[in-house]
Design a protein that fits this description.
The structure is a single chain. Strand 2 (about 35-40) and strand 3 form a beta hairpin. This protein has an eight-stranded antiparallel β-sheet with strand order 17-14-16-15-19-20-18-21. Strands 7-8-12-10-11 form a five-stranded antiparallel β-sheet. Strands 1-4-6-5 form a four-stranded mixed β-sheet. The protein contains 16 helices and 21 strands. Helix 2 runs antiparallel to helix 3 (about 50-65), helix 9 (about 250-260) runs antiparallel to helix 13 (about 370-380) and helix 13 packs antiparallel against helix 14. The protein is an alpha+beta fold. The relative contact order is 0.12.
Length: about 475
């Protein structure tokens, strides 16, 4: 709040406020309040432009006064990633909303960046369609989901939201509106810097445009301000069932996931939930159960016979026509054994992150054959079970460390886990963390693409006006 308050004393501050009000309308421009912060960094002004041209004017005003700009959607992930070095203008995209262009029968739709994802799905659902995106953050906007590249269970079949992107319209640091991919045919409109310019960095043609468009995904507004995105649209499935199987150890999960993927059942999602276990009454396993008969020395069997109840669940989502889904579900139950249960509603935890406000949230990405090793490494480093949840079928899960852990302790856990992952071509990223942790630990770890990201930042935002410091390497 101190930064926001002091901005009223800055020469020209009232003039900037008046100009923002002229651009956005008086109700939509103001000095920032205590809630207007990005990872603990308070903004000076909040601007809510009513359309792309007004948003461009805000960026031009910022450029003229050498002010920084950080975009905000619904704010559900505003504390993710690194804190920006400075936030002068928080550009709220809430009025850049709606399905702007949706040709009849087209497999794509252009959607305003500020549109809540739930609203998009509800609108498309009226005609039996959907975006194959199910980001966990409640109330998130499409722009926010893309800016964080936040994916949910459907990433197993459809990839991340970035993979569904076929075009964008975005504003560069100077306020120029750029269209790429299905959103238009313009390439980067900036003057080419020494060393080859945009063509040298990205190449030319439609594939190069998509490369730039997808580079904006996960950039937290550090490379451009998303105005709209053209996304793939598909017919909604006629039938969905969730097949749930209790699990006891990460090694057992490894074996089950391999079996599910080898069975060619075409799952839409394969999700794992490993909460902190609670001891419950001893359960009995029939001696003729295949897992006992065929693998009596399996570590998971030893764990079962010791008495604790299941440590978690493995859940497989099947989508498609009713008859086809029923047939695949029957085969899946036969594969997973009599403990598997078929349901027509998702578990309560489905599509939700395992971390809450104030906790240190980790994202682990590793080849699926090594996911169990990563979970064991995390448990060993933390000295206790850690809640883990995510897409076991693609090797991407999230975990939560208590917010009360000292920063040095979090740093040591990260170092241990990253050491194990390094040999397995995996990585561990700190998604969100309390401010003291964020200031001390390396949020990103090894990042082979950092040189290319640095080159992109230097080309697209050479004056460091867009969310400076939000990207890896302090970019």
């Amino acid at each position: 709040m101190a930064a926001a308050a002091s901005s009223t004393d800055r020469p020209g501050a009232l003039g900037i406020t008046r100009r923002l009000a002229e651009i956005c309308g008086p109700p939509f421009a103001r000095f920032a309040g205590p809630a207007d912060e990005v990872a603990g960094r308070t903004a000076r002004w909040v601007a809510v432009p009513g359309g792309p041209h007004a948003a461009a004017e805000v960026l031009r005003l910022a450029a003229a006064h050498q002010l920084t700009v950080v975009p905000r959607g619904a704010g559900t992930k505003i504390d993710w990633g690194a804190a920006p070095a400075q936030v002068d203008i928080m550009l709220d995209t809430g009025r850049l909303a709606g399905i702007w262009h949706e040709p009849q029968g087209s497999p794509v739709a252009e959607i305003g960046a500020g549109t809540p994802l739930r609203a998009v799905q509800a609108t498309l659902g009226r005609t039996g369609r959907r975006l194959p995106i199910d980001a966990p953050s409640p109330g998130a906007t499409l722009g926010g989901v893309l800016a964080a590249d936040e994916a949910g269970p459907l990433r197993h079949r459809h990839g991340s939201p970035c993979a569904q992107l076929v075009g964008v319209r975005y504003l560069d640091a100077d306020g120029e509106l750029v269209s790429l991919g299905e959103a238009g045919t313009a390439l980067l409109g900036r003057a080419a810097p020494a060393g080859g310019g945009a063509a040298a960095l990205f190449g030319t043609g439609r594939l190069a445009e998509l490369d730039v468009a997808r580079l904006l995904c996960g950039s937290h507004g550090g490379l451009g301000v998303l105005v709209s995105a053209t996304m793939r649209v598909q017919a909604g499935p006629a039938s969905r069932v969730w097949v749930t199987r209790p699990v006891w150890t990460p090694l057992e999960v490894h074996d089950l996931v391999r079996a599910v993927l080898a069975a060619r059942l075409d799952p839409a999602a394969v999700e794992l939930d490993l909460p902190v276990p609670v001891s419950l009454p001893r359960r009995r396993v029939h001696p003729d159960h295949p897992s006992v008969r065929d693998r009596p020395d399996h570590p998971s069997i030893a764990r079962r016979s010791a008495g604790p109840a299941a440590a978690g669940s493995l859940v497989v989502l099947l989508e498609g026509g009713p008859a086809d889904v029923a047939e695949r579900a029957e085969r899946l139950v036969a594969l997973l054994g009599p403990e598997a249960v078929v349901g027509h509603a998702a578990p309560d935890w489905w599509g939700r992150s395992p971390f809450g406000p104030g906790e240190t949230a980790l994202r682990i990405e590793v080849p699926i054959n090594d996911l169990h090793a990563a979970v064991y490494a995390l448990r060993d480093a933390a000295g206790a079970p850690v809640p883990v949840r995510g897409s076991a079928g693609v090797g991407t899960v999230h975990a939560a460390l208590p917010g009360s852990l000292p920063p040095a302790r979090v740093a040591s856990i990260l170092a241990a886990v990253r050491g194990v992952l390094l040999a397995r071509q995996g990585r561990c990223v700190v998604v969100a963390a309390p401010a003291p942790v964020r200031r001390v630990v390396d949020l990103w770890g090894e990042l082979p693409t950092l040189p290319r990201l640095r080159a992109a930042k230097e080309h697209l935002d050479p004056h460091q006006r867009l969310a400076p410091g939000r990207l890896p390497g302090g970019l």
